Amino acid sequence: MRRAGGLRTLEAALIRSGLGPVAGVDEAGRGPCAGPLVVAACLLAPKAYDKLAGLDDSKKLTEAVREELYPVITRLALAWKVVVVPAWEIDSIGIHVANIEGMRRAVAGLGQRPGYVLTDGFRVPGIPVPSLPVIGGDGAAACIAAASILAKVTRDRMMVELDERLPGYGFAGHKGYNTPEHTAALNRLGPSSEHRRSWRNVREAAGLRPENGALDAADALLATGTDDMISEGAEAVVGDSRVATDAAHAR
Prior knowledge:
The protein is α/β, with parallel strands linked by helices. It contains nine helices and five strands; from the N terminus they run αββαβααββααααα.
């Protein structure tokens, strides 16, 4: 598709073909070692509202612009849904499965059934309507860009709240990604209940036994792609953890 039509090119073509309305799906929080995975689905009206002209990949927008667009999207969208997958569920089923399941739940939760679904990056089986994976979709389709903003703003707000509940880790600043500040706090305080024990660096900080390196590498690859930063590991649930409670997360 030519990019001359902007982020509406692909959606407009589908609508002209009688496949609308078109919903976009995207997630935030695949790479971090702490906090939830947040998935959003958004069904935009065919009309290209001027107030949504600033839509773009959420990672390319400033926090202020994302916060400004969030209420506009929720007001003008035909339907939207945000799904939160907590850290414990990610540990139970793995990040890639959690991502796919979150996308299914988000589409199913839309108040209006889409005629077509565009997903960011990879195919999502189990969606009950035709769908298409779009590489770099949050920068190529307006509905995916809108979903990415809904997911990113929701997750960032949740991480700020977690920072108040679990002080010391700096969640409000790094949002759970593996920054040097976060790594230092993780090693100093030990993992909190919001850390993903299936991530290698969290297991190491908790004093857990090493897991299969091949599994770590495979899930680490699946965890990358849409987030700026990369997790240190991924799936492989273990039973003997040293994870602090919310009330006593500092050792």
